[in-house]
Amino acid sequence: MSQFTKEEKVRFQHVDYAGIVFYPRFLEMLNCLVEDWFEEALDRPFSKMHETNGIPTVDLKIQFKNAARLGEILTKKLWVKELKNSSILCGFQFVNESENTVLEGEVTLVNVAFNPERNGIKAEPFTEEMKNKIMNYQL
Q: What is the distance of C-alpha 94 from the center of its chain?
């Protein structure tokens, strides 16, 4: 089994006056990692999924370990810790070029379906095909 990995350069848009990543930008980087995982590894791009479904975050645990600085390249890693009927518990870690962890934690995502009026959602089980793809990332 494997981790899903992407690199991201820390840009001016990510940092505060001190030149370190402002903590909400880490959450945006994490969301981009999840979105890339769904598109590139699970063949379920958000642009198609969100026509009828979603995958909201329902629980998030984060530890900020070290500062990430303007210009650094972060390696973002995501893996599956537990797959349930309609939810996934993922671990994640962001590492800088010196192999120092800057961020780590867990995120729980739930597969949901929108009602026809798009004013409500409810949990929906993953298909067997999707479960098999997700399981390729379980450590």
A: 11
C-alpha span between 55 and 114 (Å, rounded): 11
Per-position DSSP letters for 32-98, written without gaps between them: HHHHHIIIIISS--HHHHTTTEE--EEEEEEEE-S--BTTPEEEEEEEEEEE-SSEEEEEEEEE-TT
CATH 3.10.450.50 fits 4-136, yes or no: no
- The predicted-structure confidence for 54-85, as pLDDT tens digits, reads as follows 999 999 999 999 999 999 999 999 999 999 99
| 3-state SS, residue 18 | coil
- Taking the domains of the chain in order of start, what are their residue ranges? 4-136
pTM equals 0.93
What distance in Å separates the CA atoms of residue 110 and residue 17, rounded to the nearest whole number? 35
